[in-house]
Amino acid sequence: MEDIEIYTREINIDQLLKWAGITDNGAQIKPLIEDQLIKLNGAIVTERRKKVRPGDIIEIAGIGSWIIITGEA
User: How far apart are the first and last CA of the chain?
Assistant: First the structure.
């Protein structure tokens, strides 16, 4: 499991995946959601604007898993 640092209290999952370089743009999350490949804290993600916060764990089937941590500003 890898860390992803964020510098805000929360971020939308589509923005986070782009920020972390997991997707090239926010639109690429749509097929991942439609195929139910993304989990946030063990629950399947059904919306691309789902809020992610430090301490959350994201899993994408066949790609990897990440824990969200607070970055130092």
Answer: 23
Q: What is the pTM of this model?
A: 0.90
Q: Whole-angstrom Cα distance, residue 72 to residue 63?
A: 27
Whether the CA torsion 36, 39, 42, 45 is positive or negative: it is negative
pLDDT digits (tens, 9 = 90+) for 56-70: 999 999 999 999 999
Q: Are 6 and 71 in contact (CB under 8 A)?
A: yes
Cα separation, 44 vs 61, whole angstroms = 11
- The CATH number linked to 62 is 3.10.290.10
* Structural domain boundaries, residue 19: 2-70
